TrEMBL record:
InterPro entries: Appressorial_penetr-assoc. Residues 24-53 have a biased composition (Low complexity). This is Ribosomal protein s17. It comes from Cladorrhinum samala. Keywords: Signal. Residues 24-69 are annotated as: Disordered. It comes from the Eukaryota. Residues 1-22 form the signal peptide.
């Protein structure tokens, strides 16, 4: 073999070797990017999805892990309480679990951040619970109990809340109950709502009111005066009638606030008042008002589109849904739990809409979905 032939052969060999290695790396990269969900399904905490989630999740305590850490197993769930301290014959036996009920919702309709009106099962942990001296307590300042208002006239509902870091209000159409209750400086991070219901012919009904029917509802998503005082304007007032006004205090993801002890005062408050006059026009934030109906339609649309569906108008909601840096496919985590590889790495090419899983079948509905103001 001549020197020229030898050099030509070695050159060709080197090129072929480089190409093979490139293909190998490309395939491995593709496998890592697109098949990490297989690792998740096999509970391998060292897969790329885990590394990415841990890197982007910040203080979420291994938010991308798919295994139960033995350090967080709660031994209080091992027994049913019937033979434990404080047991009484009339008490019901608690359900028990050796693994924090981690698979409790298996085989059931998952909540998945949606307001599913037909019922669902939510597997998200309750979260952080405040100390006894940081429990939430609320008093309604206006209208006062027994007040008389004029129909059709604006008025302001004002409440004073302690133990709550107000102003944290997540997207109720797509992140409902989707994250645990959290604390900041010992206080629950969240918000409150005010809801007004017609009590009928008098202020003291003998039958429970229908929770699906309300004369006014508003989620207060701001910080108020920064000292716990929050307010909501009832624009247009209320029709003549008798009413009960209550607060509904919630954590950021809308779940009722969880307290550290059973024996306590209520975290919420209610007052009753009367509206006089000839007005009978429902408020737009009533269950049958324009805003109330729009909110209900938005919730129904979100459920129809499925978990993590992006904002069809490309607004802030769509940007938040992608959040690769904040939780690395947190929106797609539900898909990963369902075993869909879209939750893992198919987004590497697109980079967006991970929560939607690039569901082309939903495109038509997304295009038709118009922007609505959510009033909860």
């Amino acid at each position: 073999m001549s020197i020229k032939q030898f050099l030509s052969f070695t050159t060709l060999f080197a090129v072929a070797l480089a190409q093979a290695q490139g293909n190998n790396n490309g395939n491995n990269g593709g496998n890592n990017n697109n098949n990490n969900n297989n690792n998740n399904n096999n509970n391998n905490n060292n897969n790329n999805n885990n590394n990415n989630n841990n890197g982007g999740g910040g203080g979420n305590n291994d938010a991308g892990g798919t295994q139960l850490d033995p350090e967080v197993i709660q031994q209080g769930s091992f027994t049913d309480g019937k033979s434990s301290i404080g047991a009484e014959a009339v008490q019901a036996a608690s359900a028990t679990s050796q693994n924090n009920f981690i698979n409790f919702c298996k085989g059931q309709t998952l909540t998945n951040g949606l307001q599913i009106t037909t019922g669902s099962c939510n597997g998200i942990v309750m979260g952080q619970i405040p100390s006894k001296d940081r429990m939430v307590s609320t008093v309604i300042l206006n209208p006062p109990n027994g007040a008389t208002l004029q129909s059709g006239q604006d008025f302001t509902i004002t409440v004073q809340v302690r133990g709550l870091q107000a102003g944290s209000f997540t997207n109720a159409a797509s992140t409902y109950y989707s994250a645990p209750q959290q604390l900041n400086n010992g206080n629950i991070v969240g918000h409150t709502h005010v809801t007004v219901q017609d009590t009928g012919n008098n202020l003291n009904p003998t039958e429970p009111l229908d929770p699906e029917v309300f004369a006014f509802f508003k989620g207060i998503n701001d910080v108020g005066d920064g000292q716990g005082q929050l307010s909501a304007v009832v624009t247009g007032g209320l029709p003549a009638g008798n009413y009960r006004l209550c607060t509904l205090t919630a954590a950021a993801n809308h779940q009722p606030v969880i307290m550290p002890v059973a024996q306590r005062g209520s975290q919420d408050d209610c007052v009753r008042f009367t509206v006089n006059g000839g007005g009978n026009t429902p408020n737009e934030a009533a269950s049958d008002g324009a805003k109330g109906l729009a909110a209900q339609q938005l919730i129904a649309d979100a459920v129809a589109l499925g978990p993590g569906a992006p904002d069809p108008n490309g607004g802030a909601g769509a940007g938040a849904g992608n959040n690769a840096g904040a939780g690395n496919n947190a929106g797609a985590g539900n898909n990963a739990g369902a075993g869909n590889n879209a939750g893992a790495g198919n987004n590497a090419g697109a980079g967006n809409n991970a929560g939607a899983g690039a569901n082309a079948g939903k495109a038509a509905r997304l295009a038709r979905l118009r922007r609505r103001r959510f009033v909860a």
